[in-house]
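Ticket #620: bound-state structure for LLZGTKA7.
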Amino acid sequence: AQPGAVKPVAAPMRDLTWGQLNFLHTTDTHAWLSGHFLEPSFSADWGDYISFSQHMRKLADDKGADLLLIDTGDRIEGSGIYDGSVPKGIYQYDIYAQQKVDLLSTGNHELYKAYSIDMEHNTTVPNFKENYIASNLDYIDPKTGKRVPQAQRYRKFKTKNLGLNIVAFGFLFDFTGNANNSIVQPVADTIKEDWFQAAIKEKPDLFVVIGHVGVRMQEFKDIFTAIRKEDWDTPIAFFGGHLHIRDAVSYDSKSLAIASGRYLETIGWMSIDGIAKKQPKEDDDEQVAAQKGISFSRKYIDNNLYGMYYHTGLNETTFPTKEGRKASQMIEDARKALDLDHRYGCAPRDLWMTRAPYPGKDSIYSWLEEEVLPSVVVNEDRKDKPRLAILNTGGIRFDIFKGPFTRDDTFTVSPFNSGFRYVADVPYEIAAKVIGILNSQAKIFVHGLPNTRQLTIPQQMYPRPNFDEETETVEDGQDGVELGGFGKEGPEIDEVVQDDENEEEVRLELRGDDGSSDNGELFGGYTTKDDIGKDGDDTVHKPIDFYAVPNCIQAEVGFSADEKPKAVDLVFIDFLLPWIIPALKFSGGDYSAKDVEPYMEGTLTTKLAEWISDNWKDEC
Ligand SMILES: O=c1ccn([C@@H]2O[C@H](COP(=O)(O)O)[C@@H](O)[C@H]2O)c(=O)[nH]1
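RESOLUTION: The complex was predicted; output attached.
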């Protein structure tokens, strides 16, 4: 762990189930390679993960089993190690590459900017060579202008110890916000292509589908269905991400999909036993398929040293490896070079994204609406004009904890380079309708309006089934998508261990009061319910309450107390541009992109830092 990070807390643990083939999975790390300084459950850093994975590989070797490491993208944007350098990522790519990842794919965050697409093509792909898979992603080579695959389309390989034949794919969901030096091909089109159709006829011992795709999203359903059309029997392991949640879905009795959270909070674990190694028949090329008694198991490992020692049987002295220590040192050096611990001020209280009700005094969104935006959204030439300032909740990425607020925190809260734009002098009754449309959850049809689910935080984009209810499927409220697994049969997993302890509903901070649980009480943390059951988390926690947030929030700035203004400047964060004009049109305003101008200098991130320096001056 990094110097200054809180120590982990002892807690009741659940063991990992080993199989023939085992996986460690990270996703949506968003450059949190330092780990979490203030949260004991997640205070291990990338160097600790390297040590952990090396010990786990050794354990696999000792058992005559195999272990593969997977990463499903969104490695960048979200923490100072990436966002704090100019250009971005000058330390991040090298530190990340210290880990030996066996299969990796691209997330949407690698694609928002032409720069990060180039970096992926010229740095991460060469760093990981044949381990990098890009089944539906192409790169436009700037020298030739030619469209080339970002990496190989799929990978065929044999595992080290058991010699299992694997065919692996690496997908991205049907993302459309990518910069124009990349092309994301829709999954439904990709799976019709000859190379994919040939690959799924390979009859390996196992298919591994990794992807920056939510495990309940249509894209994975389509891939699963396409494989099963050709091959009803071969087991399939899916590794997903994007939605920042822990989740597992059983598509059929011979497949399992897991999603392993976000921000290096979670290291996903999947193991598979009973994989039948296929032998070629002597008389022809067809291979024998005989999958009987296949079993899958999953765990969500809290990323801290207590758990890593527990799962490896090691301790403070025996655990760190040379390579792990090296990566931790690289992180420490990068943090110093980037001045990430520079203190802008002291947060007087915790401010939560979803762990406090919105609106409310502990909500980060209410704080932004009531305190920050009215003060920072100012254009000197138009400061007398009343304005509405709109932010999408998805643009805010993390909580603020009471105590020092650092340069690193500015990036964990607001990593994007988004500035503010505006449409001038919009009649108030038109401008005031925009927020309602953006928060409408697509229940009304607005011509030209992109899906509003993209505006909110990832955890809310695709609501999950309510595992407390008996029903197997629910409507998700947006497009009437059926959730609760792809089949209607429910999970068919051979190894299911239910754990009904810890049902008490208690609100506790994940951070804990003083980082200890000496009184023997359970510590607050993830208490995941998924298709497999309630025993997924490796650490037994007390539950934490989470509250829903809207897609967007809005501050009224420069309004008189007595009456609403006749016209306002409609100010919004850059990211909202594709939504604003259609929403204004629907509200009765005949505006076009030509009416949009930059509103002021600076980004939300720089404005946040300025506000905190000016307003949180007390010592801590
Ligand atoms: O410039 C940006 C980029 C993204 N967002 C928000 O983030 C989500 C995507 O989050 P994932 O981590 O990829 O799941 C996007 O839908 C936006 O809500 C943003 O606000 N600004």
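RESOLUTION NOTES: Residues 28, 74, 108-109, 112, 242, 392, 394-395, 416, 418, 454-455, 458, 575 surround LLZGTKA7 (CB under 6 Å).
TICKET STATUS: resolved
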